[in-house]
Amino acid sequence: MKNYLSIFSLLLLSTTMLAQNETTGTIAGRLSDNETENQPLPFANVIIKDINKGTTSDFDGLYALKNIEPGTYSVEFSFIGYETLEIPNVEVVAGKVTEVNTGLGASAASLDEVVISTVSRQDSEVALLLEQKSAIQIKESIGAQELAKIGVSDAGTATTKISGVTSSEASGDIFVRGLGDRYLYTTLNGLPIPSDDVERKNIDLGLFPTRVIKSVGISKTYSPSYSADQASGNIDIESRELVGSEEFDLGIRAGVNTNAIGQFGDFKVSPNQDNAYFGFHTQNIPVEYSLYNQTWDPQTADAPINRRYALTAGKKFGEKLKVLLTASQSRKFEYREGEFTEYRNNNRYDYFTDVENFTQTDNTTGMLDVLYEINENNENNEIKATSLFINKLTDEVYESGRNGEGVVFEETNPGEGLNQFVRDQNIKQTRLWINQLHGTHKLADNNQLNWGLGYNLVNADEPNRIRNEVNYDGEDFIQLGRTGGYQQRKSSQKIKDNEINAYVEDRITFVNPQENEEITKNIFVDFGGSYRNKQRDFVSRFFGVIEGKTNTFNPTSLDNLSSIFVIDNFRSGDLKIKKLTPDFYNAELQSYGGFVNFNYGKDNWNVNLGARFQEDKLNVDFDVNNYPTNLPEFSNQSYNNIYPSLNFKLSPTENSNIRFSASKTITLPEFKEIAPFEYVSQTGQVTRGNPNLDASNNLNFDLKYELFPSSGQLISLTGFYKNIANPINKVQDRGAAGVFSYFNAGEEANIYGLELETRLEVIDNETPEGLDFGIAFNASRMWHKQDLKDVFDGETFIRTFKYNNKSEIGLQGASDWIFNGSLNFSTESENPFSASLVGNYASDKIYALGAPEAQNDGDIFYNDEIIEKGFVTLDLVVSKSFGEHWGFQFRGQNLLNPEIERVQDIRPSSTGIEATQTVRSYTRGAILSLGVNYSF
Q: In whole angstroms, how far apart are CA 86 and each of 33, 105, 119, 122?
């Protein structure tokens, strides 16, 4: 850890030295399109004629020319089809930023329309820094240009480039400041969006490719305008819209996963691919009939080559209407090989040393954005419609035990000389349709109204899951599994979510410093409300096949199990169909909220005080197997509270801020955490909900110092503290080996943390052909613990969550250390070049809490917590443009291909010696790809 601290010190020292060496100046500004009511003008040329140095404006119309020697220059602005504008006598002052804001159009612009002032520099990355600098709440964002530069392909990966954010390889959850899925709140353009997965509260952000994203932001402190159902922050994805008058762009990318390409010619896919066309699956026959009308054996993919096709087209119609359409389709392959072991009461029960996972994912995305300006010359009066469709089809084949060494403890006796082989084939189809309508209206000079309406539809189905468990001697004898009755089975699962949501927000400004530079006060009030109604219908069906008598059939090969599942064997009665009563649950979340925010700012300080009243009603009705019939088959919960928020900002200098925030929020249980449906993983582990789960209440405090030493640079240090009452945890359930559930396992959890972030421009070459070099780095250190409680009903002891002499434990999903860093190289020549090397490390985290096996003797009979080990990822992105139309990009992702490992401390009663054992391990493979893009 001393090495990490040395790096921190070096970065701080380097930044301080750079800040003190201000011998040059910067010309920066914003270009607008006179033909589109002053919308941002991207890709325009900006040249300092005297020294022949230039750049282009970005998606937001922002540009910056750095490291200019003090003096007076002529600056030329040009864009294809528009009149060129030359501005003389632009003065550059050492240590200052000269901002030149102007517009271009089909006719020549007047120099009187050019605004020149001295401000902080702005480009797309820095524009977000400026937003962060002026924001009232603590907010961090990453924009489209930076996402492209570092090779980020989706919104999920984008969030992990923000300080204090990491993801769990085991669960797929995003963790902000150590708090995972249930503590986050995700929105698109400010409106909530549903989950695509029964196991998640938040949608898989990997479903959002970067080409539909304008920016991704995380508000780490609570704002009363959003739902109070959050503790670690709100993730907001801002969708793209047309910039300029027209756009047409085509792209293609191809590549390989180094693990998957090693399976060329033998990459397995499920038989469900027979009913999949262009990434869409249709189940032609009922699952029950497929027991004897569809093969049970896997197939092979033609060629495990990753590919992606993308199209973006947009046009402005008349003076008020803009339309943008973006569509893409991709296919990727992933192969994992490793081991799996399950321990129960410190003894090894199930284990496989040759676990294989084959995954093929097809992702089809389309977004339509329509913007209509109501008033021709008022950009603050508009209506925007956004429709986003995502279809994700994931085909998975899991195999373990082919080497003849697999063991399922309860299946056979050691003396029989038989081991176990398991194959699980599944296809998951998620169809997500998000529809939003937003309005912005300037009702008066000091009054702006914003509103939004949304309707979301999700169909997340597993239409035909196929599972075989057989006994195998490692050579030629195969016997159908004989314990349980559902070891040869096909099942289906369907989820349908409907959601309606809306918000309205009105801001009345009493004093605005932007209207008059002599005014130093900023006084306004925000008020409004929101509504959300989310409904879910869930059904799961199981159909098993059993022999009339053991060893009636012995398949000749593990790859020819289908030979026995034929209609004649069912008609003869040698094979019988066993049906499980369907599992159902219906759930509804209804949330109402009203809020008010008062803001008072004067000179260099600002106070924002707000509160939200929110009522949440959460009702889940269920009818599932393996649930006691004497218990209620419903859970009805209602919460109504006032959630206050305080944000204070002090700016000691023009380039620094000190921020303090405090808030109270709630964490509601999710549908899947309440409904006691048992979802069986490929490895046979079960996750089920808990109808007695309660909401958590959270207190949040943040103190942050920000320094913007020069244009485009940032140093920030944040300290934060969170107290969570009744924290929700994923726990290994008592008396049920291999079963995980959700509990309020402690009275409270406490989290303390520090975050450091810095962005440096180490080399900024004065010539366009020269190489620029920048560093971005952030780090987080967290201390976290929660108590483990005993549960009583009055004075009667019910159960304990304490085990192995532990009455305290760390927080599930929280890493002590998180590091993100990137080295960025680029040129500003006519054919620009850029390269980025991006690294990430998150230290060990708890995957699931342990539990006692014996309630009164949990220090001896217990299962310890499972730990996901930390690992490093490294990505390389190299881009090169040729002329105005062609662009090429090479991506190398997950280059180190680290081993992903989960471990557990085991102390067998036979020896009493504790040792750390691996319970799951695999590698994901490196991904190498080359992309070509053509812009018309």
A: 16, 13, 21, 21
Residue type, 890: F
Residue 23 banded pLDDT, cuts 50, 70, 90: low
User: Whole-angstrom Cα distance, residue 664 to residue 228?
Assistant: 8
Q: Residue 450: pLDDT band by 50, 70, 90 thresholds?
A: very high
Decide: residue 452, CB within 10 A, 0-12 exposed, 13-18 middle, 19+ buried. Answer: buried
Task: Specify the DSSP class assigned to residue 108.
Answer: P
For the chain, how far is it from start to end, CA to CA, in angstroms?
51
Quote the DSSP letter at residue 109. P
Contacts by residues 830-834 (CB-CB < 8 Å, ≥ 24 positions apart): 830/768, 831/880, 831/881, 831/882, 831/883, 832/880, 832/881, 833/878, 833/879, 833/880, 833/881, 834/149, 834/877, 834/878, 834/879, 834/880
Contact 168, 160 (CB under 8 A): no
pLDDT per residue as tens digits for the range 10-22 = 333 333 333 334 4
Phi, psi of 790 (to 5 degrees): -95, 140
Q: Which of 788, 787, 785 is nearest to 800 (CA)?
A: 788
Residue 708 in contact with residue 120, Cβ under 8 Å?
yes
Tell me the C-alpha distance between 342 and 349, whole Å. 6
Highest mean pLDDT among 465-474, 733-742, 768-777, 870-879: 465-474
Whole-number Å distance between alpha carbons of 520 and 528: 27
Phi, psi of 415 (to 5 degrees): -70, -15
HEC assignment per residue over 757-774: EEEEEEECCCCCCCCEEE
Q: With pLDDT > 70 as the criterion, what percentage of the chain qualifies?
A: 84
From the list 337, 326, 308, the residue with the least C-alpha distance to 387 is 326
| Total Cβ atoms within 10 A of residue 881 | 18
Which DSSP letter does residue 200 get? -
Locate 85 and state its tokens. 């504008």
In order, the DSSP letters of 226-290 are S-SB-SSEEEEEEEP---SSEEEEEEEEEEEEHHHHTTTT--EE-GGGGGEETTEE---S-HHHH
| Phi, psi values for residue 773, rounded to 5° | -140, 125
855: exposed, middle or buried (Cβ count in 10 Å: 0-12, 13-18, 19+): middle
* Span 631-683, pLDDT tens digits: 999 999 999 999 999 999 898 987 788 989 999 999 998 888 899 888 888 77
Going by pLDDT thresholds of 50, 70 and 90, the confidence category of residue 201 is: confident
Cα separation, 343 vs 623, whole angstroms: 31
User: Which tokens belong to 249?
Assistant: 């762009």
Contacts 24+ apart (CB under 8 A), 484-489: 485/544, 485/546, 485/578, 486/542, 486/544, 486/578, 486/580, 487/544, 488/296, 488/544, 488/545, 488/546, 488/565, 489/542, 489/543, 489/544, 489/545
- In the DSSP assignment, the letter for residue 897 is -
- Could you say which DSSP state residue 486 is in? -
Q: Which residue has the higher pLDDT, 330 or 51?
A: 330
* CA distance linking residue 624 with residue 582, whole number of Å: 7
Local confidence band at 449 (pLDDT 50, 70, 90 cut-offs): very high
Map residue 509 onto helix, strand or coil. Answer: strand
Residue (of 710, 762, 829) closest to 47 by Cα position: 829
pLDDT at res. 238: 82
d(CA 207, CA 188): 13
Tens of pLDDT, residue by residue over 275-289, are: 999 899 998 889 999
Across-strand partners of 506? 449, 527
**Cα–Cα distances in angstroms (integers) from residue 385 to residues 47, 375, 443, 454, 456, in the given order:** 37, 17, 20, 10, 14
Kindly give the residue spans of alpha helices, DSSP state H, lying in 609-691: 671-674
Q: Is 267 in contact with 256 (CB distance < 8 Å)?
A: no
